[in-house]
Amino acid sequence: MEEEERPFTNPFDNLTEEIVLTILDYLSEDPFAKKSFSLTCKSFYLIESRHRKTLKPLRSELLIRALRRYPSIIGIDLSLCPRFDDNSLNAISVMCKSTLKSINLSRSRFFTSVGLSSLVAKCSNLVEIDLSNGTELTDSAAAVIAEAKGLERLWLARCKLVSDIGIGCIAVGCKKLRLVCLKWCLRVSDLGVGLIAMKCKEIRSLDLSYLPITEKCLPPILKLQHLEDLVLVGCLGIDDDGLATLKQSCESLKTLNLSNCQNVSHLGLSSLTNGAGCLHQLNLAYGSAVSADMAKCLQNFSELQCIKLDGCLVTCSGMKSIGNWSASLKELSLSKCSGVTG
Amino acid sequence: MDIKERLSAESWTKSASSGNELPNKSSSNHQSFNNLNSQQHQQKWEDPSGLDYGIRIEPSFLGYNQPSETSSSIPSDPNNQIKISDREGGQINSILQTSRNQDWDPRVMLNNLTFLEQKIHQLQDLVHLIVGRRGQILGRPDELVAQQQQLITADLTSIIVQLISTAGSLLPSVKHNLSTDPSIRQLGQLGGVQFSSGEGLNGGVLPQTNDGSKVSDHSNQIDLTGNHGTEHNYTIEEHESKDEDDADEGEHLPPGSYEILQLEKEEILAPHTHFCTICGKGFKRDANLRMHMRGHGDEYKSPAALAKPNKESSSEPMLIKRYSCPYAGCKRNKDHKKFQPLKTILCVKNHYKRSHCDKSYICSRCNTKKFSVIADLKTHEKHCGRDKWLCSCGTTFSRKDKLFGHIALFQGHTPAIPLDEKGSTGPSDRGESNETPNKAGSIGFNFSSIASAGSGSQNAMDVKGSVDDPTGYFSPLNFDTCNFSGFHEFPRPPFEDSESSFSFLLPGSCNYTQKTAGE
């Protein structure tokens, strides 16, 4: 039998790029796998270079070259580059232009509002910015961020110099915000937070931990139609008396974190969560004592699945009433609770 | 007395009318005088000696001449008139003459000038009248017209004479005073005669005056003028119909209960209204003048001389006085439809300066606001740069919550960082960063320019900013106090940022690092 000499066909030619990309998706957990994939051949190299969407460089100097290799980068995580300055920021913004959607500058320090302004100006599709730990960032930086009109997720944790003015600018400028984290922004007060709640109606998640806020900012927050996640850790300005004045109810709230709020007891909690029927998760760690009243209050939430009561003083009656809950509780955390033994 | 009072009324109304007031009005007022008994026709001559004298002489004189209507023969020697007045007139005149001649000479001058002006206006009005009444004149039109023409020419000559004499006599001196008096009287008589002849058509109807009230009013007037001392006021007329309109607006004065006075523009704007009779120095206040007089001799050091000119004669002022602005077309002018009178002379002064004068004083802080009254400027300067909270629309607010309330209301407004604040935020970092936020700090108000401005140029700006604003270093602290000032409900959390306390200790290093951060 004679076999015709068939011209050699690369079986991989039958694979479209889409298929290869889908295959590559499965390899995303293992960076070395992708690396070896890319080293196989030129075509694989090209495919992989088009596949990669995020970069997490270890060194900022090599970033430009990496960006040349990977043209379709959507997200850059620079949390491992501590010395990321304005020039580099400018460079990447020039390279990525409008494909860049997410950037994480949380551990980097040496950039200022100048770099941010070039970033925001050139990367018009920017959706997510993480500027946590930007301790030198001021209100003018916040004003620059306000120029990113499509911004949806913003982290400004520990940006201690950003004040109500900057937050106000952001609130007015970034109308599509869905997630705002203002943890430890000590200069932000009721006014700034209230303005965000009033202007950014799309907010789903709001982190206001350790802010010097009081119950005055809560009415507009509770009026948010889509609010699902509210974090009020360590908000010592919120107390029962203030919460008693609340008349609004947030029906969309799913998770609430009130840990380290010693001034909030079950009364305050009940007024805050008035009407929050779909509350899934409640964190009252290190708060006030858990008594039978508190347990009764918690029974109102039929959807409640997870309760964290770490570090709270739980009384016997409280324990009993917790046991009597009919809610479909999945998780109950009582670690470090005094009064709970064994 | 009747005739005298009437004619004096006529002459006063005429004299007080401004150019734009139609003579018809005054004639109608004559009618009103006839009809209404509630006369509050007072005249306040600040210096009644010369003028009142003259005016009062004239009606008395005219009273004699009325039937004959020999107006041309009027400018006879004034001495005759004086005698007549002495015969006629009353004790009031003599009192005036003795008491006022020496004391108030400068005011006589002022009176003279204003009187001149009045006379000119009267002349104008008369001419208007003549033009207007031409059709109505029945009887002996030609003779009347001829007489009036004579009158007019006579008046003109006398006015010119008067002008010359008063120009020469503007410096206060006793001699000139006396010399001008006769001419004033002359004029007054002429004026009165004019009216009498001009109004001769109406002359048949003599106004029923409340003689007693008039005289008493008059005496009250004189005393009051002495008390006021500073301006001379001319009563114009009563605006009874207007009173009712104005009663709705703020002031509820029953109609006919108050009188309206109008000052002249020069008088309102005069810097000094009290003058020393000895040296002629001007003062704004009567008290200052009295203090000055102490230097002119011991007789001024007595408690009587130093005491405030008392008002024992006006135990209660008979009428409420309201003031009108002389500016034509002003809402505060008595001729305006919706006339709103001003309450005191000071109100008149302030109103006139604010509304009808240009604003010559400028605030030194903002270089924007202009004022015509110094007191307004001082009030403004008290709280000029106070508003620190600035919105993108340019509105400034004194409090942060006001700013945020404003921003919450409107769509596109954002908080704006004022320029001086920005310089301060620069050095608030620790000195270790290479690129200081001075760049951020000195970026101006216009955020959009941040994106466009190159970093190089901003470096230069930074250097300037930090050098120029050394005081800015302290404002981070101010920022803190600002933010927390309104919210004292809880003690400051212990986790306070300490960077700001370091900030102004390291200005030098900040400047230093700027140079390394160059492009």
TrEMBL record, chain A:
Q: List the InterPro entries.
A: FBXL15_LRR, Leu-rich_rpt, Leu-rich_rpt_Cys-con_subtyp, LRR_dom_sf
What SUPFAM superfamilies does the record tag this protein with? RNI-like
Task: Name any Gene Ontology BP term.
Answer: SCF-dependent proteasomal ubiquitin-dependent protein catabolic process
Q: What lineage is this protein's organism placed in? A: Eukaryota, Viridiplantae, Streptophyta, Embryophyta, Tracheophyta
Limits of the F-box/LRR-repeat protein 15-like leucin rich repeat domain: 102-246
Membrane-crossing ranges are none
Superkingdom classification of source: Eukaryota
Organism of origin: Liquidambar formosana
Gene Ontology, cellular component aspect: SCF ubiquitin ligase complex
Q: What is this protein called?
A: F-box/LRR-repeat protein 15-like leucin rich repeat domain-containing protein
UniProtKB/TrEMBL annotation, chain B:
Which residues belong to any copy of the C2H2-type domain?
274-301
What are its GO biological-process terms?
Answer: response to acidic pH; response to aluminum ion
Q: Where is this region: Disordered?
A: 1-50, 62-90, 199-218, 417-441
This protein's UniProt keywords: Metal-binding, Nucleus, Repeat, Transcription, Transcription regulation, Zinc, Zinc-finger
Q: Tell me the PANTHER family matching this sequence.
A: PROTEIN SENSITIVE TO PROTON RHIZOTOXICITY 1
Gene3D superfamilies named in the record: Classic Zinc Finger
One term of GO molecular function: zinc ion binding
Q: Which InterPro entries would you find in this protein's record?
A: STOP1/2, zf-C2H2_STOP1/2_C, Znf-C2H2_STOP1/2_3rd, Znf_C2H2_sf, Znf_C2H2_type
Please state where this protein is localized: Nucleus
Keyword Secreted attached: no
Which Pfam families does the entry mention? zf-C2H2_STOP2_3rd, zf-C2H2_STOP2_C
Domain of life, per UniProt, equals Eukaryota
* The protein's name: C2H2-type domain-containing protein
Q: Where is the composition biased (Basic and acidic residues)?
A: 419-433
